[in-house]
Fold this protein.
Amino acid sequence: MPTSFGSRLRWWRAHRGRSQLDLAGAAGATQRHVSFLESGRTQPSREMVLLLAAALDMPPRQQNALLLAAGCAPAWRESDLAAPELATINQELDYMLAQQEPFPAVVDRRWNLLRANAGAGWLTAFLTGPSPAPAATGTVNLAEWLMSPDDFRALLIRRSTPITLATG
């Protein structure tokens, strides 16, 4: 991911398949201004960054990164899931997770296990025995756990011959 404001803006514009003219119209600017922002010839105001981010339908975390690249303070706060102000969200997640049995878990964008329901415990116990031990950080990273030779990876067997169904 690019680091300067102009290169980030250009990347997101291309990622969304928009022209400078199209983006400028959606953000209430001119194509020339967008061009100057992408080339670094001018610096955007905080309001312009937020208008461009909205026009590009950027997620809040990426909007914050764009604001920081422009030299502005982030607009969106990122809270830990255990924060007291998210107690209602936590209750709802627990409720949804219980309703999703046997689908087992909620993970974050880095595949860290945030919470699991009884289905996760049953599935893990069925496949591997006891649940995976938390890493030194206290979290289980499912991507690492799935690919670790000592954990789930041993159960992922690639068949070299096709399976045929008997008909009769």
Q: What stands out?
A: The longest helix spans residues 87-99. The chain has a mean pLDDT of 83.
